[in-house]
Design goal:
By secondary structure, the chain is an alpha/beta fold. The chain is about 35% helix and about 25% strand. It is built from nine helices and twelve strands. Strand 9, helix 6 and strand 10 form a beta-alpha-beta unit.
Length: about 260
């Protein structure tokens, strides 16, 4: 049996005495697009941040392509990996955030090149070609020399996505990437993600865009109070909720 690309088992995360993730189990196969929905405080963003160890977790397993992230099991005990190994593991994932986190003093092209040169140790000329390719893919082929302050919010988010996917991650994580945008700019970002999904990129998204989740996802996961309350194909989860809390959450949503 083939190992799933992402495997999460009994994942627990606490902040002090507050338990935010209460035993998460999920898997993703290569090419899957999984959307995570749920109310604020349900643990969605924390789950994403545990996958690439932006947040440490107290118990459970996160594995990408069979490689346990952040820890290994030794003599029946969980032992944290050296930071150098963890840094290499983080490169298996790319992440786009709600806020774009671009370097304001670097052009769009140089924002994308930075990780390729510093992390992948790629020659600058090759990194520049890859940056130009991805800027074109996200509809910004003519804005490579523009600084973030010269770009709209939607354009900055598209640069941030290009920067992440240029690193050729095995798994892309999107954390509410449209929530900081004006409504008229949302679709230009969602169109980029839809295009990546058509290419077969494996993606895990936290989103409030229900129509997008319905149309693009292979699976929808509903989180409630730190647990996965419902999960399945979009039409099943979004059109036929089994629980009253999901039905309430979806009230008024259009697909």
């Amino acid at each position: 049996m083939t190992e799933p690309l992402l495997r999460i088992e009994n994942l627990h995360k606490t902040f002090g005495k507050l338990e935010v993730l209460k035993g998460i189990d999920m898997t993703m196969e290569r090419g899957d697009v999984t959307s995570i929905i749920g109310s604020s405080g349900s643990g969605k963003t924390t789950l994403l941040r545990c996958i690439n160890l932006l947040e440490d977790y107290q118990d459970g397993v996160v594995a990408i392509d069979g490689d346990q992230i952040g820890y290994r099991t030794q003599n029946g005990r969980r032992v944290r990996r050296p930071e150098r190994q963890i840094a290499a593991q983080r490169a298996m994932t790319g992440m786009a955030f709600q806020h774009f986190n671009l370097f304001p003093h670097l052009t769009a092209s140089r924002n994308i090149m930075l990780g390729l040169v510093k992390v992948r140790k790629m020659p600058a000329a090759e990194a520049k070609e890859i940056a130009a390719h991805w800027l074109t893919r996200v509809g910004l082929g003519d804005r490579g020399d523009a600084y973030p302050g010269q770009l709209s919010g939607g354009q900055q988010q598209r640069v941030a996505i290009a920067r992440a996917v240029a690193m050729a991650p095995k798994l892309m994580l999107f954390d509410e990437v449209t929530s900081a945008l004006d409504p008229e700019l949302v679709n230009e970002v969602l169109n980029v993600i839809t295009d990546l999904a058509r290419d077969g990129m494996t993606m895990l998204l936290v989103t409030h865009e229900m129509k997008f989740a319905h149309d693009v996802s292979s699976k929808v996961v509903f989180m409630h109070q730190g647990r996965i309350a419902e999960a399945g194909p979009p039409a099943e989860v979004l059109r036929n909720p089994k629980s009253a809390r999901l039905a309430e959450f979806l009230k008024g949503a259009k697909f």
